């Protein structure tokens, strides 16, 4: 134990004291939730000292700070992760065991902090972990949604959304910082008047205000750790006390402001890779951006007079376009409040903002109608107009007479404000999130911007934290690795390459497969408890867990399962290695075809799991409410990782890396970071199939392909497709899956058929799955590949990603914390 407060007796004494103060209970009277709270407060007490020390060191060393601005932080649970990072997990586990409590059960009392949709939000969480571990000064800036990502229930095979009241029992780790509250203004109008020097001054009037109130959460790094801060903003009304005393007009305004504050942070929009264009969403964006930028500038000004040098002490990283209004908000503060002339303000802004692009999916691009944008943010809109005017002049200078360029690149065009264009124009760095993705940005999606300003563009392949997704999620494998190569991998994942020598070692292979087996047993129990389905841990665990999206092609997976079922029914004598197909996915609440796909998976599961004649050769399981916590269990238990997106569509993926780290073999397309995974582990240790990104792009440019050719010529596919519309899986509702059938063959619609090339890739996918089976039958060959997957995952640590951001974009220095100075 590193920290004296982690001394077993002392720790438990503090837990007991906390139980008394919080609940007036003794240990033997407390329930697991109360123990969870008391343990968490005890851990927070330990962390607080280091947190103070880190803040103090930051104050003294006055380093440059990265502000990671993100609408989403998909943190998962805090207690277990904090214990891991302060290196007290095993000690606390033992201490609790001594008094009859299981730490796993206590951990289960914590609700996930699901302030995000999927990959993008989880990336932000991994980055915070790495920043703290590496000792770089950082703030995560986001929103304290009252309701996070919805809880998914499966009722009669359908997804039902339940509110995620994650704060119901309170959050033991957060600190309200009322003294740091900031005013954020919406609506109204702008006029200007001349000041005493004859300069025009903008006056914003008739607006509604809310008070942004920050809650700070400690982010523990691993080991001799720094503690950084995640600052999430809550909204409160400005004038809460004075309702009665207002005259009629003001009363109305006060009520409106109360409602605004209440609605603003009520709920996270549950769309992944899809822009819904809701006014409240733009309000949320401006709300947390304005509060965060105000706070950053306030911090800077405490120590520095010259606002023109802000970029020496602050960098704002925009996690996708969601916070790109930062560019205009910073300009507003620099011009209207700090009095800088436009050119100087623009230079500061351009040296302080950096933008990460996360997708090329057209439906994810944020574009706001001018009417909405200017009504909600009148002064910000004026500034965006001027940024646009000057940017268009620059385009004209570079491409005289080429109006097409303006059409494609302007920030305001066709009645819309294009947020990606604003982010690119206002940032000094634009990065993609995997090599292939960045290349597609440069060659296709953002080609014009790249050609005009090539130096801005760079790649930062995503990463994941090994602390949560191996050390915490897979204790058995973590211990096995540490026994062989020491513990350095925990903070230097490239050390895993030392495991390569064990790939052909019989004993190591057996141990590795035994660990996998135990993790599969753990998931089998989870499935029995949650789904009431019994699965065989000796079967191949083939897992696809991620958001449900057509481009991610869960449909390809389930159509293939339907095909396998047909084959087994037709050839009962056939030798087939038992397989458990596990799915987990939330669909956006309004995404009809995605929700129907969930129903299809469950309908297929119902039929197959209850067909005794196939002797359990296939089981299909849909994990309800896929989230970070059950993800940790699933990654540890996977034999096969399904990464089968239509090539070119998945920017990076991070689930793919988590599976690899835990020794699963990838079946996948050459998309996103899969390309780099295969580069690291070798194509012989993965199962790659399907169209390449170039081929997909070619087809798209030529108007697609004709899936009817495949339907007409391929009997297996035809049979599966007919089962979608002949009631094979839902005899009471034979037409239920007609829309899925139509999306593939498009017999009634004018849009392109099989947009995601599912039928085009089907045969190759089926063939790759055969190769999976053959490989698995040779347990030694499989074990070798599995060990190599873990051994070659070193590149995919978010520690590496963060170091690259630091070296190439942020230029930060580490903060050295002296713990005696707290
Ligand atoms: C809960 C959750 N959702 C979504 C994702 C992203 O998955 P993918 O990269 O496969 O889209 C992850 C990644 O770990 C996750 O834990």
UniProtKB/TrEMBL annotation:
- Record-linked SUPFAM superfamilies: UDP-Glycosyltransferase/glycogen phosphorylase (SSF53756)
Asked if the keyword Acetylation belongs to this entry, the reply reads: no
Spell out the protein name for this chain. Alpha-1,4 glucan phosphorylase
User: Which InterPro entries does the entry link to?
Assistant: Glycg_phsphrylas, Glyco_trans_35, Pyridoxal_P_attach_site
Q: Which UniProt keywords apply?
A: Allosteric enzyme, Carbohydrate metabolism, Glycosyltransferase, Pyridoxal phosphate, Transferase
Q: Which cofactor does it need?
A: pyridoxal 5'-phosphate
A GO molecular function annotation here is: pyridoxal phosphate binding
Parts forming coiled coils: none
Q: Which reaction does it catalyse?
A: [(1->4)-alpha-D-glucosyl](n) + phosphate = [(1->4)-alpha-D-glucosyl](n-1) + alpha-D-glucose 1-phosphate
What does the UniProt record say this protein does?
Phosphorylase is an important allosteric enzyme in carbohydrate metabolism. Enzymes from different sources differ in their regulatory mechanisms and in their natural substrates. However, all known phosphorylases share catalytic and structural properties.
Q: Give the similarity note.
A: Belongs to the glycogen phosphorylase family.
- Tell me if Cell membrane is a UniProt keyword of this record: no
Mind telling me which GO cellular component terms the entry cites? cytoplasm
